[in-house]
Amino acid sequence: xxxxxxxxxxxxxxxxxxxxxxxxxxxxxxxxxxxxxxxxxxxxxxxxxxxxxxxxxxxxxxxxxxxxxxxxxxxxxxxxxxxxxxxxxxxxxxxxxxxxxxxxxxxxxxxxxxxxxxxxxxxxxxxxxxxxxxxxxxxxxxxxxxxxxxxxxxxxxxxxxxxxxxxxxxxxxxxxxxxxxxxxxxxxxxxxxxxxxxxxxxxxxxxxxxxxxxxxxxxxxxxxxxxxxxxxxxxxxxxxxxxxxxxxxxxxxxxxxxxxxxxxxxxxxxxxxxxxxxxxxxxxxxxxxxxxxxxxxxxxxxxxxxxxxxxxxxxxxxxxxxxxx
Length: 325
Description:
Layout: H1 2-14, E1 24-25, E2 32-33, H2 35-41, E3 54-63, E4 80-90, H3 96-100, E5 105-114, E6 123-137, E7 141-154, E8 173-186, E9 191-203, E10 214-225, E11 245-257, E12 265-279, E13 283-294, E14 299-300, E15 309-310, E16 316-324
Antiparallel strand pairs: 1-2, 3-4, 3-10, 4-5, 5-6, 6-7, 7-8, 8-9, 9-10, 11-12, 12-13, 13-16, 14-15
């Protein structure tokens, strides 16, 4: 059903002309306002801060499990079908990042369903907070991008005796990342319909092998129940970041396993030093250096009579980067 309805609606909602909306009542009592005035008021410096400005949303997703290596093809035997429930709240401009991000919604989502391998992978369950960034919007329609990250549970991970064919994922508990580009059309004062393209990823970060990861692109179709979400004009400008250079240092550690399967789990040490300078009110430039010490680094020995790995390579790694935020 999703395959038939989702993409047509997505394209339709992108092509709706503004003339369909005409003029709207002015709640201030001054008559009517034009569509241009309505659009201008949808890009304010501050949104109305309502205690009940909460949205409830349900989305169905239909896609497939990506097989990025030949040994993963036989695991996939069906399409992925998942259901997501989420609750979100509109930001109100009380923090500087609300302004810098064009007043996004923040929320919490629960995802459940099959990725397309009932026998070897089973169902997944994920929970993750997210931020929903508006890209373009007016009073009836908006295009947005949503990003979330959290924890995911895989029903049937790799097991050398009971599930040895699953070379995709090696643990029940994993990290999950969810991305979605979606178009939303308001149907009534409190109900909106959305359609989009999503991508879900589950991985344990090679804490335990195998870890090819689960990657599921999908199309989505959903409904959102929300408050009236009126937008008001601001009384001031967005607060900015203090100027000047800033410096930071981060130290972290992680556990990692390398091939062959069931080898020892090694400890990885990381240190990062960066310098950045604030630019305007909502962006900054920076550069840094990252140093890691990883005892698990190894390479498979080519043309060896048996499955042999060489761990004689240097365990120290250094990288430099530049960035814009």
